[in-house]
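Researcher: Go.
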Amino acid sequence: MFAVIMGMGIVHLMIAIAALLQNELNVKIYWVHAAWLFFLLLLHFHVWWGFWDFRLVNSWNYFTYLFMLLGPVALFLAVKILIPEASQQEKLDMREFYYRVHRQFYTTMALAVLWGIMIYPVFFGKPDPVLEWLLLFLAVMIALAFLKNPKLHAVLTVVAWALFLTWVLSYGFTMQESG
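Model: Structure:
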């Protein structure tokens, strides 16, 4: 089920990104919105990659199974919030759309980050090895949910990308077999 929900999010993102790149929908692109679409795509790949650690969990129950699904569900909801429903004839201004949905989007993203913070304690009984990064990212999501200033959104979008890329470059390149 984890893979199905993550896959649905990835498919929705790829279709939306392709439509933006082809400009099928008569879209006025806003770079901050586009940056978050690409960010979500990479985040889906990253979460799927990180799921590798959970092969080490010896005992699952129905509640841990449901908890595991909360993150993919939150990410899927974030994708659905950030992708507008539109017809071919409708002109879309992605800047206007982005600021209309930003609170819902970043609140949902904050919930996904909270899930990420709790996943290691729930399954492994210890804090996440990258807890500090998750807390920084949570702070960015909360700030973006409450702020409406376009300059701050631009800056914090770059900050979020920098955090994510630094995190991946520092911690996310290898999968290891347990011995």
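Model: Residues 112 and 133 are 14 Å apart (CA to CA).
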